[in-house]
Design goal:
This protein has 434 residues and is of the alpha/beta class. The chain has 14 helices and 15 strands. The strands form 5 sheets. It has a 6-stranded mixed sheet. Strands 13-14-15 form a 3-stranded antiparallel sheet. Helix 9 crosses helix 13 and helix 12 runs antiparallel to helix 13. The longest helix is centred in the last third of the chain and has 35 residues. The protein is globular. The N terminus is likely disordered.
């Protein structure tokens, strides 16, 4: 999604398909997902299109920055433009300069974000600008948010509810309040997320049970799409509450469940039953990328120094030499799929093996190939090029990680963690790579 406030593009890979023969698709295609997660993407996509088409004519889209990444998994920028979106901005307080008559806000139910929107509206009113505002809260409007909007605009909740077609009438504009129920977002072939942001203090101290309701509702919707799950196991107080809520809500939605479930078993775990594990340093390849570099919404941003030594091919050749490169990490990448869950010590030998296989393939072009052999060679050419580029990228990442894990402080940290969980037992912290 692009951010026109800063005149830059926050996602160089805006499409969902392969952008050239040897470039890996930036977002998962879900071709190999066990339960067909493409359904979730298509439903989210249709919901977003309906939301945009409900606002006639040209419009601008103003996003909660935290929603930009997840939205990329269901819709690309070109789709938004096809449905009338002229520009995309991030929500910010103060004056919001735009010539557009219609402004769509897509936002989480956060007081600070809603206050910024109302601040934008107030500035437009002072400048005598007449506009139509459409505020869609993801996934639901809370009582606090609706009260804030009505109090700030001076409207009566009883006379002009936020979901009514007439909306809230302001002095020279109209404000429409609604919901965009993006409850479950498919992130990869085997990963779905609610993207329900909450820090550990909020999670442990929160008195209301709205979070449990959202989780329950999402799991019910999952069963509507993929059939009633025959076996559900809950661990922890919050998980048990959710399980009871699911049991009650099943009767209400019974007629919508498929007869043949695609999911055999569901395990709901309350994070409070094990607060220690997330604090440990992960030692898998994917875990160390996230720990030491950072993975955000399925992408890793790499400094040019990391990729320079291995000459990683850029998806966008026009990128500045000093600008971080954004690289997708998902199941579309066969090399990454092989490496992601392995202990880091196993990554180097596998990358070496893959490099030799690719080299052997390229050497075949020097042989005297007959027509059949040449056809077979060309059939594999695109996929081999993808694997070549991917191997080069992951070699660069792995070499960078190797430098970091060789630091004595990293070894001491891991050793201390292993000692704690093994009650004083020794731990192997000898990292080798190539």
């Amino acid at each position: 999604m692009s951010n026109n406030n800063n005149n830059n593009n926050n996602n160089n890979n805006s499409g969902g398909g392969v952008q050239g023969g040897n470039v890996i698709a930036p977002y998962p295609t879900f071709a190999n997902s066990v339960i067909g997660l493409g359904k979730l993407k298509e439903e989210g996509r249709k919901g977003l299109i309906q939301l945009l088409d409900a606002v006639k004519g040209k419009k601008v889209l103003v996003l909660d920055p935290k929603l930009s990444g997840p939205l990329g998994f269901i819709a690309e920028v070109t789709l938004l433009k096809e449905h009338g979106v002229e520009k995309i901005y991030y929500i910010s307080p103060g004056r919001f300069p735009t010539d557009s008559k219609s402004i769509i806000y897509l936002v989480r139910p956060k007081v600070e974000l809603i206050s910024n929107i109302l601040d934008n509206i107030e500035h437009h009113g002072k400048e005598n600008q007449s506009k139509d505002y459409f505020i869609y809260v993801v996934p639901r409007i809370t009582k606090l948010i609706s009260t804030l909007i009505y109090d700030k605009t001076g409207a009566s909740q009883g006379s002009s509810g936020g979901n009514n077609e007439g909306g809230i009438l302001l002095e020279s504009s109209r404000l429409q309040l609604g919901e965009f129920e993006l409850n479950i977002i498919p992130f990869d072939d085997d990963v779905i997320s609610m993207e329900y942001a909450m820090n550990s203090i909020d999670y442990c101290m929160e008195e209301n049970k709205s979070r449990d309701f959202y989780v329950c509702k999402s799991l019910i919707e999952l069963q509507i799409r993929y059939g009633m799950i025959p076996k559900i196991i809950a661990k922890g107080d919050s998980s048990c509450r959710i399980l009871k809520m699911i049991s009650k809500m099943k009767n209400e939605y019974q007629h919508q469940f498929h007869t043949c479930p695609e999911i055999d078993q569901l395990i709901i775990i309350d994070r409070r039953t094990d607060l220690f594990t997330p604090l440990l340093t992960p030692l898998t390849y994917e875990g160390l990328i996230d720990e030491l570099i950072g993975i955000q919404n399925g992408f890793v941003e790499l400094d040019p120094q990391i990729t320079a030594s291995t000459a990683v091919k850029k998806d966008n050749p026009s990128e500045s030499a000093n600008k971080k490169g954004k690289h997708p990490l998902n199941a579309n990448d066969k090399v990454y799929s092989t490496l992601r869950d392995l202990n880091f010590n196993s990554v180097g030998p596998l990358l070496n093996k893959k490099a030799k296989e690719i080299d052997e393939y390229y050497k075949q072009r020097h042989n005297n190939l007959n027509t059949t052999q040449l056809r077979d060679y060309m059939k594999k050419f695109t996929s081999i090029q993808q694997e070549h580029n991917s191997s080069t990228l992951h070699t660069a990442i792995a070499l960078h990680i190797q430098k970091l894990v060789k630091d004595p402080s990293f070894g001491k940290r891991v050793e201390a963690e292993m000692s704690l969980i093994s009650q004083g037992g020794g731990a192997c912290t000898n990292f080798t790579f190539f």
